[in-house]
Amino acid sequence: MAYHLARLHVLHFRNHLEAEAELCAEVNCFTGPNGVGKTNLLDAVHYLALGKSYFEATDLHSIRHGEELMVVQGVMRTADGDDTLLCSVRHGQRKVLSRNRKEYQRLADHVGRYPVVMITPYDGQLVLEGSEIRRRFMDGLIAQFDKAYLEALIRYNRAMAQRNALLKRAAEQGGMPDSAFEPWDAQLIECGAMIHATRSAFIGELSPLLAAHYAGISSGPEQVALEYRSSLGAASMESLLRESWPRDRQSCHTTAGIHKDDLLFTIDGHPLKRFGSQGQQKTYLIALKLAQFQLTAARSGLKPILLLDDIFDKIDPQRMRHLLRLLSGHLFGQVLITDTDAHRLHAAIDGLELETRFFHLDHKGIAREANERAMAG
Question: Does domain 1-115+302-377 have CATH number 3.40.720.10?
Answer without folding.
Answer: no
